[in-house]
Amino acid sequence: MTSADFAVDVRGLTVTAGSTTLVDDVTFRIAPGERVGLIGESGSGKSVTSTAIMGLLPDTLSTSGSVSVAGGGDNLLGKSDARLARLRGSAMSMVFQEPMTALNPLMRVGRQVAEIMTIHRTASPAEADRRAVALLDDVGLPNPAETAKAYPHQLSGGQRQRVMLAMALANDPALLVCDEPTTALDVTVQKQVLDLVLRAVTERGTGLLFITHDLAVVASVCERVLVMNAGVVVEEGPIETVFTRPQHPYTRGLLAASDLTATDAGGRLFTIATAAGYDPARLRRDADAETAAVDSPSSTVRTPAEAPAAVVEPSAAPVSEAADAVSTAPPIVSVRGLTKTYVRSRSGLFGRAARVEALRGLDFDIREGERFGIVGESGSGKSTLLRILSGLDQPTSGDVEVVGTSLRGAKERDLGELRRTLQIVFQDPMGSLDPRMSVGDIVAEPLLNPANLRSGVAASPAERRRLVAEMLDHVGLPAASVERFPHEFSGGQRQRISIARALVCRPRVLVADEPVSALDVSVRAQVLNLLADLVDEYGLTLVFVSHDLGVVRHLCDTVAVMRAGEIVETGPTEQLYDAPAHEYTRQLVLATPTLQHTLENA
Amino acid sequence: MTTHLDAPDATGVPVPPPTTTARRKRARPGIQLIIGASLIGLVAIVALVSLVWTPYDPETTVAADRLQFPSAAHWFGTDRFGRDVLSAVMAGSQITLLVGFIAVGIAVVVGVPLGILAGMRQGRLGDLIMRGNDILLAFPGLLLAIVFGAVFGAGTVTAMVALGIGSIPAFARVARSGTLQVMKTDYVFAARAANRSEFRIALRHVLPNISGMIVVQCSVNFGIAVLAEAGLSFLGLGTMPPTPSWGRMLQESQQFLGSYDYLAIAPGLAIAVAVLGFNLLGDGLRDRFDPKMRSNR
Amino acid sequence: MARRLLSSLGQFLATLLVATALIFVMLRVMPGDPAVVALGINATPEALAQWRAEYGTDQSLALQYLQWMGGLVRGDFGTSYVTSQDLSPLIVDRVQVTLILVGLSMLLALLVAVPLGMLAAIRHQHPSGVVLSGISQVGVAVPNFLVGVLLVAVFAVHLGWFPSGGWVAPADDPVEFARRLVLPVIALGSVQAAIITRYVRSAVLEIMREDFLRTARAKGLTKGAALVRHGLRNAGVPVVTIVGVQLAAMLIGSVVIERVFVIPGLGSLLVDSVGNRDLLAVQAIVAVLVLLVILINFLVDLAYTVLDPRLRKAA
């Protein structure tokens, strides 16, 4: 586009909101065709930085420093909206995080892609429509002519993100800004979209600024990385260098907390606080070792047809002594031929009811003391399974027995025993706590029904206070928390409250539904450590549902992989990860970005 | 404007004190809330004072004092029967507030439980309730009031009941949509998993979490009821003479237009102040309760 | 799409059926034997019996309802018990008057409210936006009949620019028809304009926070252009909702304005009929009003489908 020696040049960018500094003196430059990652946790200022570059910050924030984009003249900061609008979408463009809301719901996607060309007059309306279809084809959307006529709600999240990308690339910008473009997507879809981004910017020589919290993702896409913390870039350099020889303690902490294969002397995950004991260079060594190890099985086990028969029986092939002990224990959860079909409610008088088969015949056992992981992408049926296990939903056919209680056709009042033995920790740390209740009331709520208590006798208020205080102490929250309300706590702390509520009645089975997927990596490690400690301490059986293979691998001894309402493979964790028998499992393992995998290509 | 900043959160660093915009807004009530509450406070105080004292008796006619322009003796003048307008306006606030309270009360007491029930029991019962609601929606409050007036005789009680019934659908809808949102949350699942009965869940989780929306709706409907009562009295179908009512005072002023305009100004202003107060209060409360609507000023 | 349309239509008819039955039953509770009301308390039992047979009030309620409904379907509202007038032409005449008044007022309200509401939203941080918002807030609180009374005082009594009321059919004298409509339409429309301005403003403010509007800006549109191209249609859904609600409210709410300006609309006829204890007329007018309200709700429902492709899915 131009002969400038940079795609974007940012100098001393500072963004303040009143007296708070959100971004502090950030300086970097991206060369044409260069791929730069900007990583940081929530509140680090990474999104503010990208929004400032695009000139989309709200008027209430003030900026200083300078931002120049190739072909955009000198400093863009403080320029008028009209002036910046001419550059947005032509010299620089952006892909946002939320594919579900970033497209206009009332406009056909083809028109939305064409619009970016007609706005900048890079094509006539007719030609823009034609090129929009070609662009949709470019980003790998099936049947591009048809897709162009679709409305956003008719596309999946991954497809919408492809549309966003087609739009962003339409005018061949010098700079593409991607703000967590794959965070909301499933791993297999994430990999496809990341590959697409990588291919597109390489082909076009576009400078890429890629914002993410995920170190493995950034390693798989970028050449250079900036690490941001509390508005300041604390470290920058080539991926290889930063990730294997981090200079700043924060970077080291982030790496340590992200690496779920590394544990300290006590067998616990590293957190930012304990990261001093972490050796980042092991990533490199592991990566080298894995190149050797992974290559062989993945080339030899490429025969999925012969595998399934041997695979479906859980705990059939004990690999370690621990698993051995578990497999002889009696099943505490037993699932047989479980199906669930939803009839989506008909709309209006003449609407036709739609049937959705969420679960199609599941069989498995979970034994007392086992840590059972369930892995699957969105739509796999894992949430439905979990709701049925927890007695919040009824099976359509088949049966589930939890600690001797059959859930088939069970009435709400028959579930007392189940509710006493099985408790849940939810995904969304805010949404699972009633904002109008104090933490003390939230944690005490299960104690209010005498049926939940082992004694079967109602607990006195004083007794309840004592139990709540004890529980909060156990999950590492100060005693004063009882008086406070959920919004006063951070995400990680809220998840601790949720755990306290689940355990206050001393259940035997703890079901955790993606309990760390909404948390920052550093907090994630803390919560995972806490969960592991409590499972040991209380002798719990853990059912852990997640889309994140790394987390499940760290925490669980047995894993079931779900897809489209079926379990495609069950087995001891290590075996399943190292030698996946089913094609889908292998796809999942390969699609999951890990630092080791990506560094081996670095 | 919402920004797309990352939410402040623990990042290994100590949790930042809760000083997000949302919380600062919470601590400082909006200007609308203050003005709205003041106006309603004014109306309420006038109503209370008028119970024990008004400058003149608002219902006594004094032939000698007919149609006097505003003066030191009669601040707002007198009407065609020589009644003091200020006294009548003061006493009229009683009827206004009474009608508002009863009408909104009926609508809340009937509409909110129905809405919660419809939200918690989706399926046949819920459908039935909402269909019934749709039918009721076809009868605007004013129409109901006129019909009820025909059937039971016009008067303040008829008007209050009719306006109340006419407002039920609004409350049922708000309560239902709020309940549907709450029932989808994980904290309700958690409560169910903790063996809490549906009734307890409705009481402890649903009601507190939709109360904000209900209060806003109350405020809005209070204003609507005040306007409707004034309209009915204007038509001669609301409060019956000699009880003072703002709407009827306006109607009576009509024949003196051009010569005694002050007769229309005082009750008209009174209606506007009361309705404005409730609308501002409603907007202010919405800003406080509904974070999505915040900073709409 | 067709299925959704069919289902709305079914719901429309079902609501109508239940609503008419409700009206019918409700008005049977009305005190006073219609025969006595019609003939006076001194009428002989024979005369009363004859009257009842003639008007069919001696038949069972169910039969009376069916006869009434049969008449409604054919557009026959029956004959007034009190005035012995054929109700159908009377009601049709009055409905036209009310529809003209309400329709013109809504048109005026929309013409004023849509641009002002948008302006108030776009400038919500600037003084001009705040002032606009404040004016509309006050406007919502003013009863339309107060506006009417004041308009008459100023423009009819003091200035004498317009007549203070009355009605002339447009076919008889179009100029006089228009002159007499100016004040009532302004009275009814200005308060509606204030209400709709507030809804347009909040709908647009809501849209301004949407992610897709940020996307539109990232594509190279200025704030204003992004709002016009991507925001307006999205803001349409809540605005259509409130226009429907307000139209329904105005059909009956206009009765007060009709009184102020001595306009022979449907609401005035209703109030008069209530005063005359004219059962059949009240019944017919309420049925017509309810039909119109249900029709408006039905049309609003259809408008959603046109505006929002997400609702077109026949699920």
Q: What is the total number of structural domains of chain C?
A: 2
**Residues in helix, % of chain B:** 55-70%
Shape descriptor of chain C: globular
Going by CATH, the homologous superfamily of the largest domain in chain C would be MetI-like
Low-pLDDT regions of chain C: none
Residue share in β-strands of chain C: under 5%
The number of helical runs of chain C is: 12
Q: How would you describe the oligomerization state of the chains in this entry?
A: heterotrimer
Strand content of chain B: under 5%
Kindly name the structural category of chain C: mainly alpha
Which CATH C-level class of chain B is it?
A: Mainly Alpha
CATH architecture of the largest domain in chain C: Orthogonal Bundle
- Rg of chain C (CA only): 24 Å
Q: How can the largest sheet of chain B be summarized? A: none
Radius of gyration of chain B: 24 Å
What is the share of helical residues of chain C?
A: over 70%
User: Which second-level CATH architecture of chain B applies?
Assistant: Orthogonal Bundle
- The figure for the number of domains of chain B is 1
Distance between the termini of chain B: 11 Å
The helix/strand order of chain B is: HHHHHHHHHH
* Average of the residue pLDDT scores of chain B: 79
